[in-house]
Write a structure and sequence with these properties.
- This protein has about 270 residues and is an alpha/beta fold.
- It has one domain (about 15-265): Vaccinia Virus protein VP39 (Rossmann fold), CATH 3.40.50.
- Helices cover about 40% and strands about 25% of the residues.
- It is built from 10 helices and 7 strands.
- The protein has helices at about 15-35, 50-60, 75-80, 120-130, 150-160, 170-175, 180-190, 210-215, 220-230, 230-245; strands at about 40-45, 65-70, 90, 105-110, 130-140, 195-205, 255-265.
- A 7-stranded mixed sheet has the order 3-2-1-4-5-7-6.
- Helix 5 (about 150-160) packs across helix 10 (about 230-245).
- It is globular and about 55 Å long.
- The model has no long low-confidence stretch (mean pLDDT about 95).
- The structure holds S-adenosylmethionine.
Length: about 270
Protein backbone atom coordinates (compact mmCIF):
# COMPACT_ATOMS: atom_id res chain seq x y z
CA UNK A 1 0.00 0.00 0.00
CA UNK A 2 1.40 3.39 -0.97
CA UNK A 3 2.54 5.52 1.96
CA UNK A 4 1.41 8.67 0.22
CA UNK A 5 -1.91 9.37 -1.43
CA UNK A 6 -3.10 12.14 -3.70
CA UNK A 7 -5.63 12.85 -0.93
CA UNK A 8 -2.90 13.77 1.62
CA UNK A 9 -3.52 17.48 1.11
CA UNK A 10 -1.37 19.62 3.41
CA UNK A 11 -1.59 23.26 2.33
CA UNK A 12 -4.30 25.41 3.87
CA UNK A 13 -3.52 25.76 7.56
CA UNK A 14 -6.93 27.04 8.62
CA UNK A 15 -8.64 24.06 6.97
CA UNK A 16 -6.24 21.65 8.63
CA UNK A 17 -6.96 23.32 11.99
CA UNK A 18 -10.70 22.73 11.53
CA UNK A 19 -10.20 19.05 10.69
CA UNK A 20 -7.24 17.84 12.75
CA UNK A 21 -5.43 20.75 14.38
CA UNK A 22 -8.14 21.17 17.00
CA UNK A 23 -7.54 17.60 18.17
CA UNK A 24 -3.76 17.48 17.77
CA UNK A 25 -3.58 20.61 19.95
CA UNK A 26 -5.34 18.70 22.73
CA UNK A 27 -3.14 15.65 22.29
CA UNK A 28 0.19 17.50 22.34
CA UNK A 29 0.27 18.33 26.10
CA UNK A 30 -0.59 14.73 26.94
CA UNK A 31 2.38 13.59 24.83
CA UNK A 32 4.70 16.07 26.55
CA UNK A 33 3.59 14.73 29.95
CA UNK A 34 4.60 11.26 28.77
CA UNK A 35 7.91 12.49 27.32
CA UNK A 36 8.82 14.14 30.63
CA UNK A 37 11.64 16.28 29.20
CA UNK A 38 13.43 18.74 31.43
CA UNK A 39 13.37 22.50 30.82
CA UNK A 40 16.01 24.50 28.97
CA UNK A 41 16.75 21.95 26.25
CA UNK A 42 17.34 22.27 22.51
CA UNK A 43 14.36 20.77 20.68
CA UNK A 44 13.80 19.59 17.13
CA UNK A 45 10.28 19.05 15.86
CA UNK A 46 9.70 17.18 12.60
CA UNK A 47 6.41 17.69 10.74
CA UNK A 48 5.38 20.67 12.86
CA UNK A 49 2.43 21.48 10.58
CA UNK A 50 0.51 24.50 11.82
CA UNK A 51 2.28 24.35 15.18
CA UNK A 52 0.10 22.19 17.44
CA UNK A 53 3.00 20.49 19.22
CA UNK A 54 5.34 23.47 18.77
CA UNK A 55 2.92 25.63 20.70
CA UNK A 56 2.73 23.11 23.55
CA UNK A 57 6.54 22.74 23.67
CA UNK A 58 6.97 26.52 23.93
CA UNK A 59 4.24 26.87 26.55
CA UNK A 60 5.06 23.89 28.75
CA UNK A 61 8.63 22.68 28.24
CA UNK A 62 10.46 26.00 28.41
CA UNK A 63 12.94 25.03 25.67
CA UNK A 64 16.22 26.82 25.13
CA UNK A 65 15.52 26.57 21.40
CA UNK A 66 13.09 24.90 19.03
CA UNK A 67 13.86 24.10 15.39
CA UNK A 68 10.54 23.10 13.80
CA UNK A 69 10.43 21.69 10.27
CA UNK A 70 7.61 20.79 7.89
CA UNK A 71 7.31 20.09 4.16
CA UNK A 72 4.31 22.41 3.73
CA UNK A 73 5.13 26.06 3.07
CA UNK A 74 1.58 27.08 3.96
CA UNK A 75 1.63 25.27 7.31
CA UNK A 76 5.09 26.60 8.21
CA UNK A 77 3.98 30.16 7.39
CA UNK A 78 0.97 29.80 9.68
CA UNK A 79 3.01 28.31 12.54
CA UNK A 80 5.58 31.11 12.22
CA UNK A 81 2.92 33.79 12.25
CA UNK A 82 1.01 32.29 15.19
CA UNK A 83 4.10 31.61 17.30
CA UNK A 84 6.39 34.66 17.14
CA UNK A 85 8.72 33.32 19.82
CA UNK A 86 12.46 34.17 19.71
CA UNK A 87 13.29 30.61 20.81
CA UNK A 88 11.51 29.11 17.79
CA UNK A 89 12.78 28.75 14.23
CA UNK A 90 10.27 27.40 11.70
CA UNK A 91 11.70 25.98 8.46
CA UNK A 92 10.40 24.27 5.34
CA UNK A 93 12.17 20.95 4.88
CA UNK A 94 11.97 17.22 4.34
CA UNK A 95 11.89 14.83 7.30
CA UNK A 96 14.02 12.40 5.28
CA UNK A 97 16.92 14.86 4.86
CA UNK A 98 16.94 17.34 7.74
CA UNK A 99 19.05 20.49 7.48
CA UNK A 100 20.08 20.08 11.09
CA UNK A 101 23.59 19.45 12.38
CA UNK A 102 24.28 15.97 13.77
CA UNK A 103 24.08 15.62 17.58
CA UNK A 104 22.93 19.23 17.96
CA UNK A 105 19.55 18.71 19.72
CA UNK A 106 18.57 17.28 23.11
CA UNK A 107 15.07 16.21 22.12
CA UNK A 108 13.62 15.31 18.71
CA UNK A 109 9.84 15.05 18.58
CA UNK A 110 7.21 14.50 15.95
CA UNK A 111 3.40 14.60 16.05
CA UNK A 112 1.09 12.67 13.72
CA UNK A 113 3.63 12.82 10.91
CA UNK A 114 5.88 9.74 10.61
CA UNK A 115 3.23 7.64 8.88
CA UNK A 116 2.92 10.22 6.10
CA UNK A 117 6.63 10.34 5.31
CA UNK A 118 7.44 8.02 2.38
CA UNK A 119 10.59 6.62 4.06
CA UNK A 120 9.72 6.63 7.75
CA UNK A 121 12.90 4.68 8.66
CA UNK A 122 14.97 7.41 7.09
CA UNK A 123 12.97 10.08 8.93
CA UNK A 124 13.46 8.40 12.30
CA UNK A 125 17.13 7.89 11.43
CA UNK A 126 17.39 11.61 10.76
CA UNK A 127 15.76 12.51 14.09
CA UNK A 128 18.20 10.14 15.80
CA UNK A 129 21.19 11.60 13.94
CA UNK A 130 20.25 15.13 14.97
CA UNK A 131 19.96 14.19 18.66
CA UNK A 132 22.88 14.20 21.11
CA UNK A 133 23.94 10.87 22.68
CA UNK A 134 21.67 10.12 25.64
CA UNK A 135 19.03 12.47 24.24
CA UNK A 136 15.35 11.73 23.70
CA UNK A 137 13.49 10.89 20.52
CA UNK A 138 9.70 10.74 20.74
CA UNK A 139 6.69 10.76 18.49
CA UNK A 140 3.04 9.86 18.28
CA UNK A 141 0.73 8.59 15.57
CA UNK A 142 -2.95 7.72 15.65
CA UNK A 143 -3.87 4.11 16.35
CA UNK A 144 -5.11 3.59 12.80
CA UNK A 145 -4.94 -0.24 12.75
CA UNK A 146 -6.92 -0.49 16.01
CA UNK A 147 -9.60 1.91 14.78
CA UNK A 148 -8.56 4.19 17.62
CA UNK A 149 -9.27 7.41 15.76
CA UNK A 150 -13.04 7.22 15.91
CA UNK A 151 -13.80 10.23 13.74
CA UNK A 152 -11.81 8.76 10.84
CA UNK A 153 -12.99 5.20 11.36
CA UNK A 154 -16.63 6.31 11.19
CA UNK A 155 -15.95 8.31 8.02
CA UNK A 156 -14.14 5.50 6.18
CA UNK A 157 -16.60 2.81 7.29
CA UNK A 158 -19.42 4.82 5.70
CA UNK A 159 -17.31 5.70 2.64
CA UNK A 160 -16.28 2.08 2.00
CA UNK A 161 -19.89 0.88 2.34
CA UNK A 162 -20.82 3.17 -0.58
CA UNK A 163 -17.59 2.95 -2.58
CA UNK A 164 -15.49 -0.24 -2.19
CA UNK A 165 -12.50 1.59 -3.73
CA UNK A 166 -12.39 3.79 -0.62
CA UNK A 167 -11.29 0.74 1.40
CA UNK A 168 -7.76 1.03 -0.02
CA UNK A 169 -7.51 4.66 1.06
CA UNK A 170 -8.22 4.03 4.74
CA UNK A 171 -5.38 4.77 7.12
CA UNK A 172 -5.54 1.32 8.72
CA UNK A 173 -4.69 -0.21 5.33
CA UNK A 174 -2.09 2.42 4.48
CA UNK A 175 -0.35 2.50 7.87
CA UNK A 176 -0.44 -1.03 9.34
CA UNK A 177 2.81 -0.43 11.27
CA UNK A 178 1.09 2.04 13.63
CA UNK A 179 0.93 -0.53 16.44
CA UNK A 180 3.11 -0.75 19.57
CA UNK A 181 5.08 -3.64 18.02
CA UNK A 182 5.45 -1.93 14.64
CA UNK A 183 6.54 1.38 16.13
CA UNK A 184 8.90 -0.25 18.63
CA UNK A 185 10.55 -2.20 15.80
CA UNK A 186 10.94 1.03 13.86
CA UNK A 187 12.62 2.74 16.81
CA UNK A 188 14.97 -0.19 17.44
CA UNK A 189 15.88 -0.25 13.74
CA UNK A 190 16.93 3.38 14.09
CA UNK A 191 19.34 2.32 16.87
CA UNK A 192 17.25 3.79 19.67
CA UNK A 193 17.25 2.21 23.14
CA UNK A 194 14.95 2.19 26.21
CA UNK A 195 11.93 2.23 23.92
CA UNK A 196 8.59 2.88 25.64
CA UNK A 197 5.30 2.94 23.74
CA UNK A 198 1.98 3.77 25.42
CA UNK A 199 -1.58 4.67 24.40
CA UNK A 200 -2.63 8.31 24.78
CA UNK A 201 -6.40 8.75 24.70
CA UNK A 202 -8.86 11.61 24.59
CA UNK A 203 -12.47 12.16 23.56
CA UNK A 204 -13.30 14.14 20.42
CA UNK A 205 -16.55 16.00 21.03
CA UNK A 206 -18.67 17.55 18.27
CA UNK A 207 -21.52 19.98 19.01
CA UNK A 208 -23.71 18.38 16.36
CA UNK A 209 -23.46 16.53 13.05
CA UNK A 210 -22.47 19.66 11.11
CA UNK A 211 -19.57 20.24 13.48
CA UNK A 212 -18.40 16.72 12.60
CA UNK A 213 -19.14 16.88 8.86
CA UNK A 214 -18.03 20.36 7.84
CA UNK A 215 -14.23 19.78 8.23
CA UNK A 216 -14.44 16.85 5.79
CA UNK A 217 -15.72 19.26 3.13
CA UNK A 218 -12.62 21.46 3.42
CA UNK A 219 -10.21 19.02 1.76
CA UNK A 220 -7.28 19.18 4.21
CA UNK A 221 -6.02 15.67 5.02
CA UNK A 222 -6.67 12.20 3.58
CA UNK A 223 -10.37 11.74 4.47
CA UNK A 224 -11.33 15.35 3.59
CA UNK A 225 -9.28 15.03 0.37
CA UNK A 226 -11.34 11.98 -0.56
CA UNK A 227 -14.58 13.72 0.44
CA UNK A 228 -14.04 16.72 -1.83
CA UNK A 229 -13.03 14.43 -4.72
CA UNK A 230 -16.57 12.97 -4.78
CA UNK A 231 -19.25 14.22 -7.15
CA UNK A 232 -21.96 16.24 -5.32
CA UNK A 233 -24.53 13.41 -5.30
CA UNK A 234 -21.99 10.87 -4.00
CA UNK A 235 -20.90 13.31 -1.33
CA UNK A 236 -24.52 13.82 -0.30
CA UNK A 237 -25.03 10.04 -0.02
CA UNK A 238 -21.93 9.79 2.17
CA UNK A 239 -23.16 12.64 4.36
CA UNK A 240 -26.52 10.93 4.85
CA UNK A 241 -24.94 7.54 5.59
CA UNK A 242 -22.69 9.09 8.18
CA UNK A 243 -25.50 11.07 9.72
CA UNK A 244 -27.53 7.87 10.08
CA UNK A 245 -24.66 5.89 11.58
CA UNK A 246 -23.04 8.24 14.11
CA UNK A 247 -24.12 7.84 17.74
CA UNK A 248 -25.75 10.98 19.25
CA UNK A 249 -25.88 12.13 22.86
CA UNK A 250 -29.24 13.34 24.22
CA UNK A 251 -28.33 16.95 23.28
CA UNK A 252 -27.40 15.99 19.69
CA UNK A 253 -23.66 16.12 20.30
CA UNK A 254 -21.35 13.37 19.05
CA UNK A 255 -18.56 11.94 21.19
CA UNK A 256 -15.95 9.66 19.62
CA UNK A 257 -12.80 8.24 21.16
CA UNK A 258 -9.35 9.09 19.86
CA UNK A 259 -6.30 6.98 20.70
CA UNK A 260 -2.71 7.59 19.66
CA UNK A 261 0.40 5.51 20.27
CA UNK A 262 3.13 7.63 21.82
CA UNK A 263 6.71 6.38 21.79
CA UNK A 264 9.80 7.68 23.53
CA UNK A 265 13.34 6.33 23.40
CA UNK A 266 16.95 7.29 24.05
CA UNK A 267 19.81 7.78 21.63
CA UNK A 268 22.86 5.60 22.26
C1 LIG B 1 -1.26 15.22 10.23
S1 LIG B 1 -0.17 16.54 9.92
C2 LIG B 1 0.51 16.79 11.57
C3 LIG B 1 0.88 18.23 11.81
C4 LIG B 1 1.19 18.60 13.26
N1 LIG B 1 2.38 17.93 13.74
C5 LIG B 1 0.03 18.33 14.17
O1 LIG B 1 0.17 17.58 15.13
O2 LIG B 1 -1.04 18.91 13.95
C6 LIG B 1 1.16 15.78 9.04
C7 LIG B 1 2.26 16.73 8.69
O3 LIG B 1 3.34 16.03 8.11
C8 LIG B 1 3.95 16.88 7.17
N2 LIG B 1 4.79 16.06 6.30
C9 LIG B 1 4.40 15.05 5.49
N3 LIG B 1 5.47 14.54 4.84
C10 LIG B 1 6.56 15.23 5.26
C11 LIG B 1 7.97 15.18 4.98
N4 LIG B 1 8.45 14.28 4.12
N5 LIG B 1 8.78 16.03 5.61
C12 LIG B 1 8.30 16.95 6.48
N6 LIG B 1 6.98 17.06 6.79
C13 LIG B 1 6.13 16.20 6.19
C14 LIG B 1 2.76 17.53 6.48
O4 LIG B 1 3.12 18.69 5.75
C15 LIG B 1 1.87 17.81 7.67
O5 LIG B 1 2.11 19.07 8.24
Amino acid sequence: MAATSRHDAWQAGDRYEAYMGRWSRQLAPRFLDFLGAEENLDWLEVGCGTGALSSAILARSNPRSLVAIDASEGFVAMARENLPDPRADFMVGDAQALSVESASRDVAASALTLNFVPDKKKALGEMTRATRPGGTVGFYVWDYPGGGMGLMRAFWTAAAALDPAARDLTEDKRFPFCTPDGLTALAKDAGLTKVDCVPVEMPTMFRDFDDYWHPFTLGAGPAPGYCVSLAPDARQRLKEKLSDSLPRQADGSIVLEARAWALKAKTA
